[in-house]
Write a structure and sequence with these properties.
heterodimer, A: 255 residues, alpha+beta, Alpha-Beta Plaits, 2 domains, four-stranded mixed β-sheet, three-stranded antiparallel β-sheet, 11 strands, 29% helix, 20% strand, B: 397 residues, mainly alpha, two-stranded antiparallel ribbon, 72% helix, globular
Chain lengths: 255, 397
């Protein structure tokens, strides 16, 4: 009897150990995939979780945001490097599209389509979408691109090896290789200003208040009001990047 | 920056402002090309060793040494292409494991150290010991170092060499598949790029790798035989031709499937890819990759399946199809790497790519990276010539 109990407890012990070991093995195999689902897990609500709203209906295409960004962040002046830019979409009566962004919107927009042919025209300011499931963060081979606890995608320029895989992986064209530093560069949502309690440069200079940013955790933030009162959409939603840049008035033609 | 201003004038339609410059140039075309040659050559070698296709024996060692020579070079264009080459070690010391690229260092090292070097060492150890005894001077010292001090030539030890070498080759086959399938995954897993993002990409890369590796060994075998003034073993060459034909059919089928699938599904990116294929990739895709690299070699090798002409006709035609396949696979890599960056992710326009002559990204440098493995291979063939290995008969006895 006693012997049998001993045997059964031993059996149970072995069974439990096996179960535990199995769980550990499976668990450790699953963990990296979990991390892939959410490159930055939305953290405990001790930190703000930033998102951006842009109201296309308010944008007048003045390009102040693009200019301010270059000035504030030391972005190379040449017309090939942008953290923030503005596009003008013109949809013609025949359904065809004309898009332009002269020097990222820093130079004046000149409408080239004759007025009689225009069905509608609007401006779309672009910048990093600070995705929650960032493809760029996912592919960085050394982890030089990461998401801050506030959900902002940043690059550690002392660590980046300049392989440019992140530039390939960004569906929105928001990254470039800094010509002097030879590292990937992108919008930081003016992290250096945010940390001092200031607004990102492009938000401060926007004359029509087309840009808004805020904490998704804070139900009273202006961003929440913006999201509540408008039907917003993100760019390329089919790619499931967890974009946190929400547009109001986004036409389906915009990519 | 001059070239970017030049490029600005050549933009077609609308592209995002950051997209003017192509970030991956000729060096990244070479990387999958050279890695593919390694995987393909190794798989050909393992056909003899593991699958016991003994008729391929004359090319076994040549294939292994070719794989090693190309593998040593494979990583160099990659590292020189980095913005910060001296930080390259970070991939090994602090890899970001969710990145497809992060694992490359490990896959590469595994393949180099565990598979290729070990297999070649087991295979050559006995000869190295004997060569060390027979030669003098630096060569003697070199052979001695290469034996790593294991100079035991008892039949038992030699039997172990054989056994362990076999095990390494068996491990090597999935490793070769991994090495190149993985290179395909680096491209295939980029969902932002519809030209790359395909589940078939790793398989296509692997098959084209096998095609190119087999063609390379076939070409080298003929050239080396010519230089050594020895007769080409025709049954061996015919067998290689047969395998090349088979893998080429598979490769062609899967690549066509990939395209047919794209065309039939006609997703959001269809129009821009259609324009890409019929415009900027017109020549490199249809002529170089399709006609030169696939259709003509398929026709030649296929014809040999039906009717085997005389040796005198077969040899130059094998040579020709081998070279054409090599050119075709190069352009396949070109079409993937360069083609995937020519269109804007806005799907509204194209940028341009101009291959320069000088500089790290120029074609002179690319030619250098392509010639270098042949120099390394020549050195290997001088140092450890497969044809001077000690009689196999002693082994099998």
């Amino acid at each position: 009897m006693g012997n049998e109990r001993l045997n059964s407890s031993r059996r149970n012990f072995i069974r439990k150990s096996a179960l535990l070991a199995g769980t550990l093995v499976v668990g450790s195999a699953v963990k990296p995939f979990q991390a892939m689902l959410f490159a930055a897990n939305e953290p405990e609500k001790t930190m703000p979780w930033y998102a951006i709203g842009i109201d296309i209906e308010k944008c007048i295409g003045c390009g102040s945001c693009a200019r301010a960004c270059k000035a504030e962040n030391d972005v190379p002046k040449e017309p090939f490097f942008f953290r923030s830019w503005v596009e003008q979409y013109t949809i013609k009566n025949d359904g065809t599209l004309a898009v332009q962004s002269p020097n990222g919107g820093i130079d004046d927009f000149v409408q080239t389509v004759p007025e009689a042919e225009i069905f509608k025209s609007f401006f779309v300011p672009k910048m990093c979408n600070h995705c929650a499931k960032s493809p760029c963060v996912q592919v960085c081979p050394v982890g030089a691109t990461y998401e801050s606890p506030e959900g902002i995608v940043l690059v550690d320029e002392k660590y980046c090896i300049g392989c440019r895989y992140c530039i390939q992986a960004c569906p929105y064209g928001c990254r470039y290789l800094h010509p002097e530093k030879q590292t990937a560069d992108k919008c930081t949502l003016c992290y250096h200003r945010l940390k001092k309690g200031l607004n990102p440069a492009c938000f401060d200079v926007c004359p029509t208040g087309a840009r808004i940013y805020g904490d998704l955790h804070d139900m009273n933030s202006p961003l929440h009001k913006f999201l509540k009162e408008h039907s917003t959409q993100v760019l390329k939603p089919q790619l499931n990047t967890g974009s946190k840049l929400f547009y109001n008035g986004l036409s389906s033609e915009v990519r | 920056m001059e070239h970017l201003y030049e490029m600005l004038k050549q933009v077609d339609g609308y592209i995002y402002p950051n997209e003017i410059e192509l970030h991956w140039g000729i060096l990244i075309v070479l990387y999958p090309y050279i890695t593919g040659l390694v995987a393909g050559a190794f798989i050909l070698a393992s056909l003899e060793r593991v699958f016991k296709i003994k008729v391929l024996r004359p090319t076994y060692h040549l294939a292994l040494l070719t794989a090693l020579a190309f593998l040593l070079v494979a990583i160099l264009p990659l590292v020189t292409h980095l913005g910060h080459p001296f930080r390259a070690y970070e991939i090994m010391t602090t890899p970001h494991l969710q990145s497809a690229m992060a694992i490359f260092g490990f896959v590469y090292l595994w393949y180099l150290m565990v598979v290729l070097l070990l297999e070649i060492w087991f295979d050559y150890r006995r000869d190295l010991v004997l060569w060390a005894e027979q030669s003098t001077g630096i060569k003697r010292r070199l052979y001695k170092i290469l034996t790593l001090g294991v100079t035991d030539l008892s039949p038992k030890t030699i039997a172990w060499d054989e056994k362990l070498g076999f095990i390494v080759t068996v491990v090597g086959i999935p490793s070769a598949f991994l090495l190149h399938g993985y290179v395909g995954f680096i491209f295939g897993s980029i969902k932002a790029n519809p030209w790359w993002s395909s589940v078939l990409m790793p398989v296509i890369f692997l098959l084209s790798a096998m095609v190119s590796g087999i063609a390379m060994v076939m070409f080298l075998y003929m050239v080396v035989s010519r230089i050594r003034k020895v007769k080409i073993d025709m049954p061996c060459l015919d067998e290689i031709g047969k395998f090349l034909f088979m893998v080429l059919i598979l490769d062609f089928t899967l690549e066509s499937l990939d395209q047919v699938h794209r065309i039939y599904e006609a997703e959001e990116s269809f129009e821009i890819l259609h324009m890409l294929v019929n415009g900027k990739l017109n020549i490199t895709l249809f002529i170089m990759q399709g006609l030169v690299g696939t259709i003509i070699p398929l026709a030649i090798l296929g014809f040999f399946r039906i009717h085997l002409p005389k040796e005198k006709i077969r040899k130059p035609l094998y040579m020709l199809s081998g070279l054409m396949v090599l050119v075709g696979v190069f352009f396949m890599r070109w079409n993937v790497v360069i083609g995937g960056q020519l269109f804007s992710k806005s799907f509204l326009g194209f940028t341009n790519f101009k291959l320069g002559m000088i500089g790290a990204e120029g074609y002179l440098m690319a030619i250098f990276w392509l010639v270098l493995p042949f120099c390394i291979l020549s050195f290997f063939l001088w140092l450890v010539p497969p044809w001077k290995k000690h009689a196999e008969a002693e082994l099998t006895e």
